[in-house]
Design a protein that fits this description.
Elements (H helix, E strand, L loop, with lengths): L2 H14 L3 E4 L12 H6 L5 E4 L4 H10 L3 E4 L5 H9 L6 E2 L7 H4 L5 H16 L3 H5 L8
Parallel strand pairs: 1-2, 2-3, 3-4
Helix pairs in contact: 4-6
The chain binds zinc ion.
The site of zinc ion (ZN) has 4 residues, from loops.
Length: 141
């Protein structure tokens, strides 16, 4: 992320008292680990690692940084299981990236997509699902 853009974004998040949502992915330019230094240098802000990719880097950041969280948008069920298995259910937020689903799943309405994601989360997380569903990017800890 260019330094000037990230500096302005962090200042704005600080002023508005909102978390910073960082979209992670499986391409090296957007690996979660690239954001670790910025997360640790700004402990007064909360950061959400959208998609949680790659999950092993996310696990390392979540365990180290109290101000880091992950959301479940487009996250494979196996990765959610891995986060739960690491005892990190308290750092997971429910996310959907809606309505971007309309691009990836054009035959599925956004309503149905979100219902499917909720059901998947309930199946994956059992008793932790309600707690996770109560936390979204709009209602973070
Ligand atoms: Zn995204």
């Amino acid at each position: 992320m260019p330094k000037k853009i990230s500096t302005v974004s962090l200042q704005l998040a600080r002023r508005l008292d909102v978390p910073v949502l960082l979209h992670t992915g499986n391409f090296s330019v957007c690996h979660a680990g690239r954001f670790a230094e910025m997360i640790d240098a700004n402990t007064d802000l909360s950061f959400v690692l959208a998609h949680g990719r790659p999950v092993d880097e996310v696990i390392r950041i979540l365990k180290k940084s109290g101000n880091a969280f992950v959301d479940t948008a487009f996250m494979p069920e196996a990765d959610i299981w891995k986060l739960i298995g690491e005892g990190l259910h308290g750092k997971i937020l429910f996310g959907t990236d809606a309505p971007i689903n309309e691009i990836f799943y054009p035959g599925t309405s956004t309503t149905d997509y979100i219902k499917e994601r909720v059901e998947m989360l309930r199946a994956a997380c059992g008793s932790s699902a309600a707690e996770i569903l109560a936390r979204t990017i709009y209602r973070y800890p």
